[in-house]
Structure prediction request, 666 residues.
Amino acid sequence: MKRFTILVALLLATTFSAFADKGMWLPSLIASRIDDMKAKGFKLEAEDIYSINQASLKDAVVLFDGGCTGEIVSNEGLLITNHHCGYDAIQALSSVEHDYLTDGFWAMSKEEELPCPGLKVHILVRMEDVTERIAKGEKVEKIIAKAQKEGKGYVAKVEQLYYGNQAYLFVYREFSDVRLVAAPPTTIGKFGADNDNWIWPRHTGDFSIFRIYVNGKNEPAAYNANNKPYTPARHFKVSTEGVKEGDFTMIYGFPGNTQEYITSDAVKYIAEKSDPTKIELRTQRLDIIGAAQKLSPETRIKYAAKQANIANAWKKWQGEVKGINRLGTYSKKLDYEAKFREQNPDKAYLLDSLEASYAKNMEGYFNYELFNETLRGIELQQVVFLASDAAAIERFYKDFDVEVDRELAVAMLKAYEELATADATSLRKLFAQHGGAEQYANWLYDNTKLGTFEGFKATNIAEDPMVEFANAVIEIQRYVKQFAYRNLSNIPDIQRWYQPYVKALMEWDKERAFFPDANLTLRVAYGKVAGYEYEDAVWHNPQTTLEGIIAKDNPEIYDYNVPQALRDAYAKKDYGRWGIELNGKYTVPVCFIATNHTTGGNSGSPVINANGELIGVNFDRTWLSTMSDIEFDETLCRNIICDIRYVLFVVDKVGGAGWLIDEMGL
Ligand code: ARG
Ligand code: GLU
Prediction:
């Protein structure tokens, strides 16, 4: 049956020459895709997605805390993002008396909402192609300065697209009075934690709710108790209609980093050198921290966030390597490049130049990555730099264990000693003086007085051996800084060849739909709700339900300890307006998957249906998808979405915060 559907879909796809569900498109150019979107079920116009003349959906999408996405769902600036995106803010507001991470937080009125110092959101005012203006000699700084004068709270940026073939001005409104409205307990917002991370089937209620406040003129303003809720130009209407296999879905958000056009050399570097090394180093760190966490509940808590951070990319990279190998991305790139050379002999030098610049920079970039993964992971050196900031120092020691850090230092210095080829004169000298990296690390932790807060307070830092170590690290940092770019391919010496290469590709490969790589600017991706073949004979359905949460329930395991409120609702089938009939069961929808092309930064992104209504909140990809940053495969790649009906159910039945549901107009 499934096979039949796929065949028919393929036939249809060729008949109507529809595009694949691949790509992250610039909203201002979405008119070029709108026919394809409509053919796939979308009912709105390009102007509804992005317009500078009228309110459009873009006015309801926010860049949240500089690395996630969020969406406005009421005319009073109520906004939804992921729990893991609000995590820092929620943690900062938490204390032993008010542990909002563990217990959740539910404001019962606007007065109870909590200001989040330092938290900012940005809303795009407009974007503009400034390639010509720059070509004509206008200075980027001037363009930015001029745009920032257009309105109160405006910040502007010029970003390169297609490796510098285009430059775009992005003008944002920056809001800095953002307050926490609601967060589910960790047992919902982080249900399944790292075990389930990057995994489908998934049952995480990964959402949190905030509100934007402004001054009396509806303009961005610093926190003030008298500020008013923001009236957005547009907000998302929430749909409780739900989804089914094949339904059109669109994602509107801020994807951070993809590398669609890199050459075979870069793919090989990622799959054979960079990812495997980083995975191995992080395995060591995770093992060390994990073992210590097992021995002490205190350490488990202290290192929970650090462990989660290390584990997130660690797990992603493993999926990425497998995916690249499964798709044969490297040999596909080789073939593509051979064809390019053959058909563009006059441009073949571009590939030669790319090859040569990779050869020249790869080792340096590897040392930069190695530096990040090894030396920067040794935490105690931070004390040398934080020493004068009393609050930062206190925060540091709150989540620090010197014996864990010693073990990390031993392992990471040994790895560095073995793998680094960068200029590390002082550090190598220290190794030599003590008979090797391991001996040096142990000597350092035997002799430093900074291992505890008490020790720190009683010490003259200048005389501590940690200073010498920190200085040796800085020396290396000074060297690797020249390679400190988002990806190997963004090192200017390499990237400058991508500009003419990608231009030549666009002129040559007319069949290919070229989208600009993600760079944390606003994009649209569209596709459909779809299951997929996980492995031979194993089909994964696109929707999970409360049944799956209850099946995972285990009070003994922290990550699967379902809150009592959910157990009670399940026992009484007390689902209120949110219950559905699915596969013969009365239940509550929890998460679903779709074919939208997403990446890090798309966390919290609104997922909308054919009518432009909010049906879910994006928060992850499946493990088989993570190579999509390099090669997207429609048959395998799935983004993971928290069903808006689960969000509403939790707000209602766990939080008892019905006033928010009323505010969303439901
Ligand atoms: N994998 C998702 C994203 O990259 C969710 C991360 C949440 N963190 C975690 N350790 N579970 O970033
Ligand atoms: N969890 C990711 C984020 O924080 C989104 C998942 C992905 O990489 O697709 O943005």
